Amino acid sequence: MREVSAAIAPPDPTLTPGIRRDDVVSLLDRTIDLTRPAGDHRPGFDEVLADVAALGLAPGTPVVIALANGRHLLQQYFAVLLSGGVPLAVSPSTPSARIRALAAHLNAGALIAARIDPALYDARRRFEVGEQQAVPLPMGGPRGVYEPGQVLMLTSGTSGMFSACLHAVDSLLRNARRHAAAVGVRADDRLLISLPLYYSYAIVAQAMTALITGASLVVSGPPFTPAAYRETILRHGVTSSSLTPTIARQLVEIGERLPTGLRSVAVGGDRTDPRHVAGLLDLNPGGELYLTYGLTEAGPRVATLAAHREPAHRHASVGLPLDGVTATVRDPGPDGAGELLVATDTALLRKVGPAARQPLIAPGLVATGDLFRRDDDGYLYYTGRLSDFVVVRGEKVSLFSIRQAAQTLPGVARAVPRVWRGDDGENRIDLEVHASDPARVTEAAVHAGLRPLLLRSERPARVTVVPVAATAQHK
Questions:
Q1: What is the pLDDT of residues 199-248, one digit of tens each?
Q2: Which segments constitute the AMP-dependent synthetase/ligase domain (predicted)?
Q3: Three-class SS state of 316
């Protein structure tokens, strides 16, 4: 493979506006990868770029990248972009059956992962791409659906597990620039990426922010532990970190002060409990704390609150829209809450996938599905969701996706997920399955059938099987 790739011409810079090979190389040189032992030999970016180009994919072909956090993921992501492909980052634990379905629905033409069995994807060949492997995905392939300079991003919500947001990479860079200005990222900062890079927050608000500002990266990855977090900040001189509300709560509950070198903390989510906001401020006296709201459809960041500069009564807010972003509340009720509409030139181009709900109600205008109220000064306060997704162990989970997966199992006529809260305060999901063939559909069979289709956070805690006949008798 490498003998072939050495003859590949350099990437055409017109394919990916805003992304230059030299800038990517500089970013990778500024990246400390904690997922690999120091001193490991790693292929250079040009070697990976040549290997991706040697796959011979047509311009605009989506490429699924199923890799754990690390410098290698960034290499592959930007190599696909610079080769004219359309990257789609997914969890490395995504089952092969789900990747096959993604390829068919989204026209993905290749998969890059750490180790791949070609037989699982009806592929006859396996290629080396840097230290990783790649296989063609014959169930997908280019059909003129996408163009070079575009990116696909998975998202949770009512559109289901096989839908994705299509973005232009130049608009993602624009969003990263606005986010960097809102949270004060500087060229001398060192940003810690501990969130999965297949999240839009991590790849745009952190990796692309570092690309455009000149900041450095320290890449770790799940699972998160408070002790490892503190050690990483101290050992590697981290000055800026991004957290989820769940992680923020863990740090506040432990109550240990954060290292003094950590200048800035950003919490990305729909709402952070004001008690935890106060707790984070106490843990990092003199530091900066930003609460941010966004969604993949908007590109992704929408609003930011500089909590360290605001009075306590605003700590329940996600702040004001970023420059260039307009937010309005549609059809507010008696309490002032209504669906948030976001107008931005960083919005997705469209949603793709089977029966994907289109969030665009006009070009650049996103119906978020989130309920907000706005005070007289324009500050936004999250109050709930319109769509049927919940957060389970820090992961956003689509109830529609669970229903969709369960209803593909033989003998399942209908599936009803039900959410309940455990003693630890975390959400759990039970699944009621209405079986047209009760002899075939058992609790064990449903659990086994869902295992290759669902991520761990999506799998139901309990399954109850109800015969369809019994259901009909009670109607």
A1: 999 999 999 999 999 999 999 987 888 999 999 999 999 999 999 888 89
A2: 54-345
A3: coil
